[in-house]
Amino acid sequence: MGIRVSRRVVGIGAAVVALTSVVGGVAYSAGTAAIRTSTPRSERDVTNIDVLRQQLRNYYGDPLGSGTFGADSNYAREARSVAKAGQRWIAAQHHTRKTKAILLDVDDTSLVTWNYEIASNWAFNPATNADYVLGQKFPAVPGMVDLVKTAEREGYAVFFLTGRGAAQEQATLGNLTADGVGIDAGYPKPTSLPNGEDGLFTKPAPADYPTYLKQACAADPNGACTTIHYKSATRAHIESLGYDIVANFGDQYSDLRGGYADRTFKLPNPNYYLP
Ligand SMILES: [Mg+2]
């Protein structure tokens, strides 16, 4: 996922930082994204990674690692309960004079990538991942199609905002909605904006950034937007066109930080972390 491309970049950045601190004791350089966490004092402070993988398979109701998650798994239950909470919130909002909107991330917010986690043994690779994205192989996150359909019925505009690259836009739209290729998750079509944008925001290459991204990300490394800047600047852009983003759904904290939403909803995803 473009988002995962950034994960890969982040991984490299983190490795560089680690190496730097071993060699020179240098602190994090400005703008370097890395996962900040604790350092275990003992192996007893962490879960063995093979045991952890088994716990994740159990959580997804897929103890043998077939790649198909269980409809009754704890994962599915947890995702459905977030979708329900979103539905209750959306139904209760009548205050805004702007056009009400909901905004959703794609990977592991709207579509479940569990089959790819299993196939890749949790090791993201852009080439093998593209096979799943372009083949439209991801099923819907439990509860989320109902939520989006309900929002649409209640007059909400529907926007998707993903770190997947612009080259994956058509396949992403096909997987989310219905185009007869691979899996059709059955989401309503995203809402077209008054300026002609199609309501599914994929991440452009820096050379193709619209003005609002160029401005928001000028100080980011190489002028390439961090996930938080890319997503929050896009939400700001959407709101500048007359929408109120009443609810923002994401599986990563970087989907949710940076404002421009009345409320945020975190979908479960213990498989990867994107700063
Ligand atoms: Mg995601």
TrEMBL record:
Pfam families: Acid_phosphat_B
Source organism superkingdom: Bacteria
UniProt keyword terms in alphabetical order: Signal
Name the record gives this protein: Acid phosphatase
Organism of origin: Kribbella sandramycini
